[in-house]
Amino acid sequence: MPKMKEMRHTVDEKSQNEKEHIMDCLxxxxxxxxxxxxxxxxxxxxxxxGIKGMVDTDVFYIISTGNYILSHGIPHTNPFVxxxxxxxxxxxxxxxxxxxxxxxxxxxxxxxxxxVIMIAGVYLVVRSLVAKxxxxxxxxLICTVILTNxxxxxxxxPEILTFLLIILELYGIEKYRQTNKRVYLGMxxxxxxxxxxxxxxxxxxxxxxxxxxxVKFPYKRVTQTCMTGKMRRTLIFAAILSMPVLLVNPYGxxxxxxxxxxxxxxxxxxxxxxxxxxxxxxxxxxxxxxLGSVLLFFYGLEHSGQRTEQGKILxxxxxxxxxxxxxxxxxxxxxxxYPFFMLGTLYLFKDTGSAIEDAMKKLWSRIRLDxxxxxxxxxxxxxxxxxxxxxxxxxxxMIFTNQSLTDVYFARYADDTMLExxxxxxQTVTEDPDSDICCLPPEYNQFFEYEGFQVYIDxxxxxxxxxxxxxxxxxxxxxxxxYNMRRNLTDTNLSFPLLMQKEKKNEKxxxxxxxxxxxxxxxxxxxxxxxxxxxxxxxANADRGGILxxxxxxxxxxxxxxxxxxxxxxxKRR
Length: 574
Fold this sequence. Notes:
- This protein is mostly helical.
- The chain has helices spanning 2-27, 34-54, 57-72, 93-131, 137-149, 159-179, 187-198, 205-208, 229-242, 253-256, 258-264, 267-270, 284-303, 318-333, 338-366, 371-400, 405-413, 416-430, 445-450, 475-484, 496-509, 522-531, 547-554; strands spanning 437-440, 536-540, 559-564, 568-573.
- Among the domains are: 272-367, no CATH class; 414-573, no CATH class.
- It has 23 helices and 4 strands.
């Protein structure tokens, strides 16, 4: 009898618990599943970012180069510019061919899908590393999104492929550390071989990321995780043996030295490229994440060895410190390294993520939002989504109707009048057998290069710095002078004859030569324009009123206006 009563009591308890559980489910509002929220958010984010990333300005010369490789083979002289015989090293030839093949096989929509897949690849790699430290699904989602967004190159540039190759190499090294099986070191030559053909300018990074595995960090609170003894010697030996694979490419040693030749050329001193400059203190894109990671580093340094509220021991490792610190130094020197600063921050997060999870949970538990606040936040989110969606509806429609990628660019980044001007200019040039062109601003040249026209210069500045002979000016120097000649533009009622007149007056007053080679005299500028081997000149936006516009307008006997729109003017040499 006592047993029967005990069993009845147990059944009554279970029944009561089930009733309470059902009542709780009915009374409490249903919350969105973290997994479902992640799927919905990432789908929208990847598509919007994919539309933006597939029309990155570099994509146009990547595809035009790839089209040429698929049709004619790998070029050694530049077939895209009006100056014949210019040497060229396509350091990312395999990547160009891959993207061009995707565009040719699957159309513009295929490019969008490929971009989304590449962005998703970065996200999943980051998510898998974050998940090793963070257990709460909402915290994991927030941290993964922030770290992925820090990559900076979520587009069709080859930096994503470089990131994935480096992750693959680091995976092999970590497996070697854990198992002591040398077969995993085969990842080093494999990834370096892929890198030197798909994105040769970054091959050096495959050696840089080995250093944190070899060097101790001289601080007692940091756990030393670098390799020692035989494992370190084996890793160094494997890296040295991997070096010959760098020569397995169509350009040989030139492809290996490409990045050093580009820096030594001096081209970057003439043409300022933002990603190759030190990061600016007023640019919050860089400053806030860098400052946040610095605070995270010092927190980890101070609390290393202590137990978090989850019971985990916070352990800051020497590998993470060197990986993060090394990329911090690189990104301060050149913004170009910012994507790999995310990799260093990811290593730092792997060691300190549990502390971040504790802090975010504690902060979230203190936040109490009333219904009015929730309504306001919901309205703001709806406005944001509608705004982003409206911005992307037209480009998305053009993508899936397989319209030209250049049209998608102007639909995404400009208004309808800009797109109308672009189409009219393109049609005018297409109908003329003499269709070579020189554009200001210079980046417009690659739009015409993508459309199959020859241009005065494409956006690979290091290719144009070499001089043909002593005392001659390079193509890049000419382009900079064409773009930057602004010395007398502060005069009222400015005209090119006035510049010529002022120049004659200046010659009488002073015989001192021009010190700044980027800024020519009016006479030199006139000679420069006449020597440019191009039949068409396109002036867009602010450049319509620049010195080239004045010259072409005043010399209407030599140059006729073929098209004039709200944003662009097209001139043709008579």
